[in-house]
Amino acid sequence: MNLKKLSLYSLTSSLMLLMSSSVFSADTDVIKNKLEKEGYRFVQQIDAPEGLEGWTGYRDEYPSTVFISKDRKHYIVGDLYDASGKNLSEEAINTHVKGAVLDEIWKSLEKSAWIQDGDSNAKKIIYVFNDPNCPYCHTFWKQARPFVESGKVQLRHILVGVIRPSSKGQAATILNSANPAEVFKQHNLSNGKNKLVELKNMPKDLSEKIDNNNKLMDKYGFYATPAMIWKDAKGEIQSQQGAPKDINKLLND
Fold first, then answer.
1. Residue ranges of the chain that CATH labels 3.10.450.70
2. Strands, DSSP E only, in the chain?
3. Taking a C-beta distance cutoff of 8 angstroms, is the pair 107, 207 a contact?
4. C-alpha span between 63 and 89 (Å, rounded)
5. Across the strands, what pairs with 179?
6. Which one of 3.10.450.70, 3.40.570.10, 3.40.190.10, 3.30.450.90 gives the CATH number of domain 4-104?
7. How far is residue 161's CA from residue 137's CA, in Å, rounded to a whole number?
């Protein structure tokens, strides 16, 4: 994956499979309440064709538009086009939902199990999906040292277990240690040659944390490590997969 913004609108395809057109005999509040109970968050009411009430919102960070019939008997979750073929839902999503979804993405990263690397007050924060058996992760860790040690950048390493069967147990060993940051540092300094012993009898909560990290990585479309997510100078979320070719551009963006 090349350096690029996370595509918010492209995520709607998955949501459409989950929330296709449906018909219910109910008033609008019941319909809204039903969708909210299913995890849908309404953001902003929007213009809609005659006979419909329009809304923008999102579910599981997937944005969409919802249209409720004014007779309060039907609703549809999907795209709205005008006669020329222009997608009006995309425009409404970019206007009203984009910021809310970006906030949700950032909050989900903050809640993951990660290791602090660098000054916690550093303005630039980069979340890095990191597998203990990933040689490119060690490369990126070393490339980033000047930026981290200068206090300009802080890395938050989200440990995952995706490369080898031993990865999860090794990630657990790091997270379960008395000083995870130091163990993680020494592991990277050795380029992973100082093999970590897999944690046996892994506590359930720790196992779930790593599994959740794996799910988060998959959710955002990453299939290899390291994978990075950060905010640029404009506050837009950016992402990159693989060791960066231009470390200066990434860390100075």
1. 4-104
2. 4-5, 22-23, 40-46, 52-59, 62-69, 74-77, 114-117, 124-130, 153-159, 227-231, 237-241
3. no
4. 10
5. none
6. 3.10.450.70
7. 13
Architecture in CATH for domain 112-252 = 3-Layer(aba) Sandwich (3.40)
pTM exceeds cut of 0.90:
no
Cα 204 to Cα 247: distance, rounded to the nearest angstrom: 37
Tens digit of pLDDT at every position of the chain (253 positions)? 333 444 444 444 434 433 433 433 345 588 888 898 998 989 889 999 898 999 998 888 788 999 998 887 889 898 989 899 999 898 888 888 878 888 888 999 999 999 999 999 999 999 999 999 999 999 999 999 999 999 999 999 999 999 999 999 999 999 999 999 999 999 999 988 888 999 989 999 999 999 999 999 998 889 999 999 999 888 888 889 988 877 777 777 6
Q: Give the list of residues 6+ apart from residue 168 with CB closer than 8 angstroms, or none.
A: 161, 198, 202, 207, 210
- Both tokens of 243, joined, read 């060791």
53's tokens: 């009430």
